[in-house]
Amino acid sequence: MKVDYKNFEVEVIDDKNHTLNSTKNLRQYKTVYCEESQFVSNSKHGIIIKENGIEISSIIIYESGGGTTIIDDSFIIEDDKIWIRICNKIYCFSIPTLDLIWHKEFDFATNFSFHKLKEDFIIYGEVEIFRITKNGEILWRFSGRDIWVNLEGKNPFSIESEKIRLFDFESNEYIIDFDGKELEFNSKTTPE
User: Fold this and answer.
1) How are beta strands 138-143 and 157-160 bridged, if at all?
2) C-alpha 157: how far from its chain's center?
3) Please, what are the averages of pLDDT over each run of 10 residues along the chain (192 residues)?
4) Are the CB atoms for 98 and 57 separated by under 8 Å?
5) Nearest-5° Cα angle at 86, 80 to 92
6) Cβ atoms of residues 103 and 90 within 8 Å
7) What is the reported pLDDT for 165?
8) Which phi and psi angles does 73 have, rounded to 5°?
9) Which residues contact 2 (CB under 8 A, 6 or more apart)?
């Protein structure tokens, strides 16, 4: 996925076939970020920054945990930074150098998507919903009776006007405000 930012082209990709320390990789990155020799990485996301068509920096991030792929809601670019979610972590890198500013684990399972909300971010995790600052500080977290996955076809996570609507695995509905306070709960379970 390519995005123009200022006079740079930022490309964010899945590179699941990349092998650590191999000279046979289709793409060679200037930096490889792999903590604790994660030989069992199930997600590998690359970031390439070009200026006037010339690559000036690139990085591949190896992570393990709940596997992720690159979609529209995988990263946010602003303020000369890129925040990217990979597995259950968020990474923040500077643009254009791709120097690591911070990274942190949030949901212990996986972070499905990542959204801008005013001056903060909302993370849609498998187990919890988070609101964090641009520096990775947790403002609040919210969990329900079950995971935020729904098999009945209901959208488990949606940001609406001044609220967030959630459906858990059992199809219980939760409506919370942007401060993480529950406004409404509708149980799917019918009393006997």
Assistant:
1) unpaired
2) 14
3) 97 93 92 73 94 97 91 96 97 98 96 96 98 98 97 96 96 98 89 50
4) yes
5) 25
6) yes
7) 98
8) -95, 30
9) 9, 10, 11
